[in-house]
Amino acid sequence: MTALLQRPGYEPDRLLRVAEKLPCRDVQAGILLSLMGEPGQYSYPSIFIYGHRATGKSHVIHTLLKELELPYATISCVECISAALLFEQVLLSLFGSDAASMLPRSPSLSDFVRIYRQQCSQSPAKQTRYIVLEKAELLRDMDANLLPALLRLQELVEDNVTVTLLSEIVWDTFRPNTGCFEPLLLHFPDYSKGELQQILSQDSHPSYSAELYSSYINILLGVFYSVCRDLRELRHLAALNFSKFCEPLEEGKVKEGDTHKLWRNIEPHLKKAMQTVYLREVSSVQWEQLQQMEEKETGAVRGLSAHAHVELPYYSKFLLIAAYLASFNPARTDKRFFLKHHGKIKKTNFLKKHEKTSNHLLGPKPFPLDRLLAIFYSVVDNRVAPTASIFSQISSLVTLQLLTRVGHDDQLDVPKYKCAVSLDFIRAIARTVNFDIVKYLYDFL
Known about the structure:
This protein is 48% helix and 8% strand. It is flat and about 80 Å long. With 445 residues, the chain is α/β, with parallel strands linked by helices. It has helices at 12-21, 26-36, 57-67, 83-95, 97-101, 109-122, 146-151, 153-157, 171-174, 193-200, 210-224, 231-245, 247-250, 259-274, 284-297, 314-328, 334-338, 347-350, 359-362, 369-379, 388-399, 423-432; strands at residues 46-50, 72-76, 129-134, 161-167, 184-187, 367-368, 403-406, 416-419.
């Protein structure tokens, strides 16, 4: 047990179990224990914990509260869509169903405070009570007085209670415009590559040695660390591809120490899987079945991002085609490709002499929304009205990470995008709508 987790008032055995369950988070756990103090002491009224997804915020706070057997209530702001549900869950977790049933049908904040104080007078707190609010940024969409009241709930109910807010956004963005009580801030940084290696290596397979699984995780991080640092996604990818990594071992072709041959066997599978990180186009079981079926039929590995499984609406496909053309064609060529009566343009004049580098080698370039729509209306088969459905499909393509938003979110007048798919991917999409995209690409003239 590290010195950071040695605190008076808590049993050493419990703190030792906490340290074992929180690898690479002993610093943050130690700071939280310092803020919480001894069980019978008054703690700070509110704590704001923030950090990116899968950085251990919920795991650390829940492990501390559960292992140290402290009274707490965990509230998901995704599930509690109203203040009434939130009040009910808090009273139910801390005082039981009788206290929750005392709430009126549409309770106000004053009703919640009144009932909470009544329950405190009947059962005073022997140690600090904790209220943990997950996805706390959703509180900003509720009543304006709810967040300021929760931050100083200890003062309102006159009880030893601490409200802990967990969020993925920073406090400067979270803070209400009207002002409020300032909580203590605690940041959870992203895991480093070495920390991810240490955490993921703990999930070793019982049929193989820990050294083999550790070398497999090292190979996995070498491929995915530059594009994904989400612990949950990496754990999913590790479990998904480990059986393929061990195939040569099961067939007796290589030994555990021959890492180079194992790497050569798994490399094409990992590179295929990298194309659809976060997308989850098919489930793990479906992907394994597809791989087995395809290897029996053709002997070729297609991986997670098989084009046949990418299902998009009809107009979304044309929007993606238009985005690809806008990203890889210079803007001055739009007249040549998409205007019917553009006049005669000599190829020698059209192709600038100094433009010898392929646009596909330079990568996708950003384009404004109006240019995307102009190309879309030129390539789509029939007339399409500029309805809200078209704009929502653009947002869906951004959510799927097929398009990338460029610039700040507050630029609503002229948003810019970049296409984030490969040439093979867009050619497969274009074939499904009988569109020859190569004829409209500047690099293939």
